[in-house]
Every structure is written in structure tokens, then in C-alpha cells.
Amino acid sequence: MNDNMDEKLRDLLCDKAVFGLSDEEATELESFSAGASGDLNEHTFQLAAAAILLAETKLEPMPAHLEAKLLKAADAHFGESAKNSAVYESIHDQPTRNFQWSEPKSKGSIFDWFGWAAAAAACVALVGTIFFYQNRVSELQARVSQLTPTPTVEETLAQKRDRLLAEGGDVKRAEWTKGNVPGVETVTGEVVWSDAKQQGYMTFRGLPVNDANKEAYQLWIFEDPKLEAHPKDGGVFNVTSEGEVIIPITAKLRAVDPKAFAVTVEKPGGVVVSDRSKIALLAPVKPSSA
Q1: What angle do helix axes 42-55 and 3-18 make, rounded to 10 degrees?
Q2: Residue 53 is inside which H or E element, if any?
Q3: Which of 139, 278, 150, 251 is nearest to 194 (CA)?
Q4: Dihedrals phi, psi of 193, to nearest 5 degrees
Q5: Distance between CA atoms of 68 and 78, rounded to whole angstroms?
Q6: pLDDT the model gives residue 245
Q7: CA-atom Rg of the chain in angstroms
């Protein structure tokens, strides 16, 4: 390829790197490329264009630890001979790392520093890659922390009962007294209930463990102080351990201003209407606690 063709090829490569080519120019470039000289590399032109563009761009100051890593990598890569070069000095002497490129004196002189421009562009690309991946990792860690639910510790029944007592301003409390079932005379404990929250808890100390295959305990909520014939079902439960037991109330219907609570012994699964033949415990609500 003669000098004129080389010059034309350089022009096309420069235009492609900076502005892009038309279809006609791209076809012309392909025809020239077949016989191009070894030093007319399209990638080199693109790196040079990127270096020029970056030289005119105001870069944010590089963090000190990244600057140290980059300088160490430069020492290892370029060796002692690079320490006397203008690029090496510009990296060390300019804290802001804004590379200053002089305007070429002639059209041909630009190619004299393509090699250094490519090296500088590679360094800038390395810094950009480090910044990108560090920022990307931070973003991913933030997203993972947002998507990962914070483990919550389930409240115990005792904690739920205590919270109801602390937050419920209308909580009623009633202490258990013995009924007509033998063996429960020493049972102690209480009932707490909130109309507003429709929540409540029963606390028993000493209530015998029942055989769930033969019988079950069932709570009844009375709204009439004379103990109406059809109280509201407060839920069926079993006692599986000795000592203090806390049972949540599971009222089937809305209960308003209860006057008493009763626990009966029924068949497994409970009943719709109790015959009240086995009343284990009774807890009347005293007027003073209302």
C-alpha cells in the first residue's frame, strides 16, 4: 500500500473512532484494510480517541488506596524504564490524574504517541473497572440486605399476654376458683380479656394434664352475671405439661363485657352446648376490675 492509501486509511480509521462511518466509507475501509500496514490497527485508533476524550473530561479524585494499587500495578507492568516516561511522571505528580495532551503540531505527529495514548487509556479503563465493580458490589450488598428479611423472634404466649396487659386499656381480669370437678381444688391463675382487641389469655398453675383421646377442656364466656344457658364458646384446649400453662382464648363469636369465664371438661373436640356436669374452674369478673 502506498503512502497516499495509508494516509486515506488513517483518515478513515480516525473518522470511524471519533464520528463513525457511512455505508460507503465503511465499504471503502474494508477494501483498504486488506493491504493495510501492520501499524494501522483499528483498535489503537479507538483507544487513542478514548484517551483524548477522557483527557478533556473532569474526573473525580481517585481514592488513595486505589491510587496506590494502580501505581503498584504500573511499576510491575512497565518496569524501571517506564519510570522515566512522561506518562509515569504524570500519574505520580498529578493528584487529580487529569492527563494533559498537547495539540499535535502536524497531522502525522499524532501517531507518534498512539502507543502511549493506548497505554494511558488502558490505565484509565482499569481504574474505571475497579470503580465499577466496587460500586456494583456495594449496590448488590444493599439490595440483598433489603431483600433478605430480618429474622424475627416469635413472642411467647407469656410475652403476648403481658403486652395485652400493657397496651389494652380495657383489659378485664378474673381469678380462677374451683368448680365441681375433684382434683382441681388447688389450681390457681387468671383470665385476661380485652373487648377492643377481642383477645385474651388464660393462665393455669396446677391444672391436671388431660388425656386428649378421652377428654378436652373447653372455655365458656358468660355475658350475663346469672350465667346464661348458652354462653359463648371460648375454644377447646388440652393441657400437655404440668406447672404454669398459658392458653390463648379463641372466641367463636364476639364477646362484649364478659361477667364470668368457666372451664368445663368435655369430650374430645368439645361440644356446642355444655351440660355443665363437669365445671373444672369458674372465674367471675369482679365489678371493681371492670
Answers
A1: 50
A2: helix 42-55
A3: 251
A4: -145, 140
A5: 15
A6: 96
A7: 43
E-assigned strand segments in the chain: 172-175, 177-178, 188-194, 199-205, 216-222, 232-237, 244-248, 260-266, 279-284
**Amino acid 289: pLDDT:** 44
Domain 157-289 architecture: Sandwich (2.60)
CA separation for the pair 96, 155 (Å, rounded):
56
C-alpha cell at 83: 519510570
Q: Which amino acid is at 8?
A: K
Q: Which of 52, 55, 95, 49 has the alpha carbon at shortest distance from 71? A: 95
Q: Using N-to-C axis directions, what is the helix angle for 114-147 and 64-78, rounded to 10°?
A: 140
Phi, psi of 204 (to 5 degrees): -125, 140
| Domain ranges, ordered by start, for the chain | 41-147, 157-289
Helix (H) or strand (E) holding 134: helix 114-147
According to DSSP, residue 222 is labeled E
Q: What's the pLDDT at 71? A: 74
The CA distance from 205 to 197, in Å, is 25
Q: What is the predicted pLDDT for the residue at 196?
A: 93
Specify the amino acid at residue 280: A
Q: Burial code of 264-282, b = ≥16 C-beta within 10 A, e = fewer?
A: bbbeeebeeebeeebbbbb
51 burial level (CB within 10 Å; 0-12, 13-18, 19+): buried
Answer for the pair 202, 218: CB distance below 8 angstroms, yes or no: no
How many other CB atoms sit within 10 Å of the CB of residue 216? 20
Spatial strand order in the sheet of 260-266? 177-178, 279-284, 260-266, 216-222, 232-237
List, run by run, the mean pLDDT of 10-residue segments along the chain (290 residues): 67 71 78 60 61 58 72 67 51 49 47 54 59 61 68 87 90 95 93 95 96 97 93 96 94 94 97 95 78
